[in-house]
């Protein structure tokens, strides 16, 4: 159970190599030669046999030549034959490093591999390196040093350069895999392996593009739960879609969406491979979550200012000492020191002065991390300062980084710091950037923890009405909704809009305006005009019926002159939103390839393109994510008290974002949306302009099906929530597990008898290790499901139980305590057809039918997911479980690999 399915590929014991056509060593491709040399350059810990393709044995002989992995480096015409032979040898994995393989041949190879049950890495892969096994099955150069970094690269181009850099900088790897463009085993699978590999402490991903965003996101998220993941992807400054029909789509570039996706997946993105390694290294030493405030301890003003500038530039904050620390430190430091801003210990600072300053920063609650900087000065011993800084590392849990500037004179100091485990950098920018990565990592981990449901708990939207409207638009072969239609759609999801009605004549406009009440706004209504005000198609603040008539006529004339071909439906009449000090913001939706719908937030108004202020986030959103999204936009500053206006109603804005998220989840046809502007003030928010684009064509991420196939991140599956009545009375709630269940899950495990714990985990721990706990609670609902049974009691519960509802407890005389009393779970097996389950029930709840109910529900979820079989391994000594399995119609079979277990299976 604890072996990863990629083990035969990445930890082989026996390897066969096909690198020559005949026994003749001259008969090799360049790759064949390179690979042979690479493999032979060190002693692999397992066995290796070199075969040529002429190797023919009888079938019996072939199957006696057992091997885990076949490495194939033959010219394209011979690969298929070699793969067949590998299959007959019952190799469970094959690596094809041959290049120049066409997509057609690659497809044929995949077919053979699937038929023979062989995992296939390649073709056109640079192979992999596993330094601890002394295995270099790659055409990417000499074997790297052993270390704790796991690397997966999408392309060969940079792989060799990266390895080269790592070699000359003493960076070591646990595993390096280059997957190549046509490979069957893909980045997502390797990520999954690295997440589970005990030798890997942090993961590096080098990416070029993404096939299926859903698969990628799900693999990345589950890896980032387990360990730090750093991603390098070349960013292209690329404008948005030219053919866009909304502001949002025209201004959003795909690289920004990629950024948002990585952030949400809990990963950290860097821009160069120098930064890649320093980030991976810094993150491997786990800190407590840290904020953005970096204190600078320096002996020179100039470098300190440089660092402070960079802190500003990349959105961090300068960590400043609190007043008492300032006073205390001032008393100790030399005359020239100044400590209220950056902590300049002066050029005369001694090692002790440095130590005092760092200690003060480490103890100060306004500081999240410390950068110790040193510039060379005649008479100051850089090494002694370094030594005193290094000695402080064990006394602080805050990130402590260093930057010893200069060259020859500080080499020894850098070595000393490095050996002490303090990250050292040559430039202030690099050091500040590294702290930025640490801080970002913890921020992103919080985003990763969010599992929003598709619909909020706010008032129910009219989804049916919305769908009908979209269908009627599509039936007319239109894609762009008019302003009125767009606002109607928003209204069905309870987004407040200005009341808007269409007039087809000046008189109609006058009548509508009179009924709505003055002042009103008139706007041209045309599917062909994205910017109404650009063509003078907006008239504001009209105060009378005659004014409206005139404005109507003028507007029609002007627009007809400025955009001759445009189709004009008429003019909409709407009430003026009269917020004197209202701020204009915009909320939009764009559809990205490959990530699908993305929600955009930023400054609004007619100059949106110029202001170019937008933050984005992938749906689904919850309140936490909505708030972060608002904070990331520059316009956020103006939403607080600003230029004499009161702070706006941020909650109202968040509600709009949550509603837009609901729309995106429920309406897969929604492709683009601009709500621009939304006018928001202290009393609320109202949308005064909206434009929505729909499309009936399919939009589904490869490998995902069902209601939310259009989303890169599957929403929290709230549809599995139900209330169960238990045998013997009482009820419990059944629902998918959530990250904030960690404490309750731990309590359940602690409360189990040692025997039950052993039955479930086949291990003798008393509680779940932290990594297991997070992996069990923050799950990817696409590849696994865990249902928890929760009982709420009104008495004092067992110690450590989580008090859910303190308010109820305060109001009444009781304490409400939630407790998880059972968990059933399935994890999809790599074949994507079946799943493996587990089940656990609290001691005091046994015999009340809970186990069976948990099993039934998890099987129902697996069935809905399209799986065909559910499988489990049960210890033979677990009689109660075997009885339950038989009662539920499971087939109980021998498990050949381990006689202590029985294998139980049930078709779905
Ligand atoms: P477009 O974006 O197509 O140019 P809008 O409908 O957004 O047209 O109108 C342009 C500007 O006019 C808005 O940014 C807003 O400042 C103002 N405006 C439009 N409608 C209203 C309204 N109902 N109440 C108050 N101001 C409005
Ligand atoms: Mg507008």
Describe the structure.
The chain is an alpha/beta fold. The chain contains 30 helices and 37 strands. Strands 29, 30, 31, 32, 33, 34, 35, 36 and 37 form a nine-stranded mixed sheet that branches. Strands 7-6-9-8-10-11-12 form a seven-stranded mixed sheet, with helices on both faces. The two termini are 22 Å apart. Residues 797-802 have low confidence and may be disordered. The structure holds adenosine-5'-diphosphate (ADP) and magnesium ion.
Unreliable residue runs: 797-802
Distance between the termini: 22 Å
Average predicted confidence as pLDDT: 89
Our count of helices gives 30
Strand content: 15-25%
- Give a short account of the largest sheet: 9 strands, mixed
**What oligomeric state do the depicted chains represent?**
single chain
Q: Based on CA inertia axes, which overall geometry fits?
A: globular
Helix content: 25-40%
Number of strands: 37
State Rg.
Answer: 32 Å
What class, by secondary structure content?
Answer: alpha/beta
List cofactors, ions and other ligands.
adenosine-5'-diphosphate, magnesium ion
Summary?
The chain is an alpha/beta fold and 908 residues long. Helices cover 36% and strands 23% of the residues. It has 30 helices and 37 strands.
């Amino acid at each position: 159970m604890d072996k990863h399915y990629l083990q035969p590929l990445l930890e082989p014991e026996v390897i066969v190599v096909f690198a020559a056509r005949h026994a003749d060593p001259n008969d090799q491709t360049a790759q064949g030669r390179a690979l042979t040399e690479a493999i032979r350059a060190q002693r692999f810990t397992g066995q290796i046999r070199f075969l040529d393709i002429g190797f023919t044995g009888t079938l019996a002989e072939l199957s006696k030549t057992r091997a885990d992995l076949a490495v194939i480096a033959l010219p394209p015409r011979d690969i298929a034959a070699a793969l067949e032979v590998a299959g007959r040898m019952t190799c469970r994995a094959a690596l094809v490093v041959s290049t120049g393989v066409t997509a057609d041949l690659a497809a044929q190879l995949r077919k053979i591999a699937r038929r023979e049950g062989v995992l296939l890495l390649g073709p056109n892969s640079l192979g992999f390196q596993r330094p601890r096994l002394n295995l270099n099955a790659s055409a990417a150069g000499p074997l790297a040093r052993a270390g704790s970094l796991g690397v997966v690269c999408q392309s060969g181009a940079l792989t060799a350069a990266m390895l080269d850099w790592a070699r000359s900088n003493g960076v070591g790897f646990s595993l390096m895999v280059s997957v190549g463009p046509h490979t069957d085993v893909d980045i997502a699978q390797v990520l999954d392996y690295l997440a589970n590999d005990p030798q890997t402490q942090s993961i590096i991903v080098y990416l070029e593009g993404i096939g299926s965003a859903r698969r990628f996101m799900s693999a990345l998220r589950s890896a980032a739960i387990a360990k730090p993941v750093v991603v390098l992807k070349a960013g292209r400054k690329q404008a948005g879609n030219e053919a866009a029909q909304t502001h949002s789509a025209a201004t959003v570039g795909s690289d920004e969406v990629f950024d948002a996706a990585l952030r949400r997946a809990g990963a950290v993105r860097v821009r160069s491979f120098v930064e890649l390694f320093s980030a991976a290294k810094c993150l491997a030493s786990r800190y407590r979550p840290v904020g953005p405030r970096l204190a600078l301890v320096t002996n020179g003003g100039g470098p300190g200012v440089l660092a402070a500038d960079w802190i500003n530039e990349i959105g961090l904050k300068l960590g400043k000492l609190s007043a008492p620390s300032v006073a205390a430190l001032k008393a100790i430091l030399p005359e020239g020191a100044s400590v209220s801003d950056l902590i300049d210990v002066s050029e005369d600072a001694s090692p002790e002065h440095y130590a005092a300053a760092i200690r003060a920063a480490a103890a100060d609650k306004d500081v999240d991390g410390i950068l110790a900087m040193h510039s060379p000065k005649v008479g100051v011993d850089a090494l002694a300062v370094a030594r005193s800084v290094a000695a402080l590392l064990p006394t602080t849990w805050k990130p402590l980084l260093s930057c010893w500037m200069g060259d020859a004179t500080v080499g020894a100091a850098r070595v000393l710091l490095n050996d002490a485990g303090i990250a050292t950098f040559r430039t202030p920018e690099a050091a500040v950037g590294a702290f930025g990565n640490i801080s970002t990592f913890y921020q992103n981990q919080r985003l990763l923890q969010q599992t929003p449901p598709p619909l909020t708990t706010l008032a129910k939207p009219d989804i049916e009405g919305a769908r009908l409207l979209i269908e009627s638009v599509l039936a007319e072969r239109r894609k762009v909704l008019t302003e009125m239609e767009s606002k109607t759609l928003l209204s069905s999801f309870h987004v407040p809009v200005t009341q808007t009605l269409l007039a087809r004549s000046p008189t109609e406009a006058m009548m509508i305006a009179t009924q709505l009440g003055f002042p009103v706004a008139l706007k041209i209504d045309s599917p062909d005009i994205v910017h109404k005000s650009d063509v003078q198609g907006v008239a504001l603040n009209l105060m009378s019926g005659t004014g409206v008539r005139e404005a109507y006529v003028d507007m029609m004339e002007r627009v007809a002159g400025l955009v001759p071909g445009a189709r004009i439906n008429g003019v909409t009449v709407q009430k003026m939103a009269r917020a004197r000090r209202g701020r204009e913001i915009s909320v939009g939706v764009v559809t990205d390839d490959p990530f699908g719908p993305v929600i955009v937030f930023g400054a609004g108004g007619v100059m949106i393109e110029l202001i170019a202020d937008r933050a984005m986030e992938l749906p689904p959103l919850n309140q936490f994510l909505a708030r972060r999204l608002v904070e990331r936009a520059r316009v956020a500053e103006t939403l607080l008290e600003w230029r004499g206006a009161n702070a706006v109603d941020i909650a109202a804005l968040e509600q709009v974002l949550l509603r837009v998220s609901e729309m995106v989840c429920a309406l897969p046809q929604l492709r683009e949306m601009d709500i621009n502007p939304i006018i928001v003030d202290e009393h609320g928010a109202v949308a005064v302009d909206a434009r929505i684009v729909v499309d009936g064509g399919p939009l589904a991420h490869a490998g995902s099906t069902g209601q939310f196939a259009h989303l890169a991140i599957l929403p929290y599956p709230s549809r599995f929530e139900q209330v169960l009545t238990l045998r013997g009375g009482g009820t419990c709630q059944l629902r998918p597990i959530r990250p904030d269940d960690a404490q309750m899950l731990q309590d359940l495990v602690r409360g189990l008898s040692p025997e039950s714990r052993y039955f479930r985990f086949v291990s003798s721990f008393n509680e779940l290790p932290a990594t297991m706990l997070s992996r069990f609670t923050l799950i990817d609902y696409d590849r696994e499901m865990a249902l928890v049974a929760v009982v709420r009691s009104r008495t004092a519960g067992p110690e450590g139980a989580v008090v859910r509802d303190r308010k109820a407890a305060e109001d009444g005389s009781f304490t409400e305590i939630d407790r998880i009393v059972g968990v059933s779970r399935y994890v999809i097996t790599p074949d994507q057809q079946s799943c493996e389950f587990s089940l656990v029930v609290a001691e005091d709840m046994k015999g009340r039918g809970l186990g069976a109910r948990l099993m039934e529900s998890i099987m129902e979820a697996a069935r809905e997911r399209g799986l065909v079989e559910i499988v489990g391994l049960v210890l033979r000594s677990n009689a109660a479980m075997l009885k339950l399995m038989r009662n539920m119609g499971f087939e109980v079979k021998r498990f050949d690999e381990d006689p202590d277990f029985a294998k139980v299976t049930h078709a779905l």
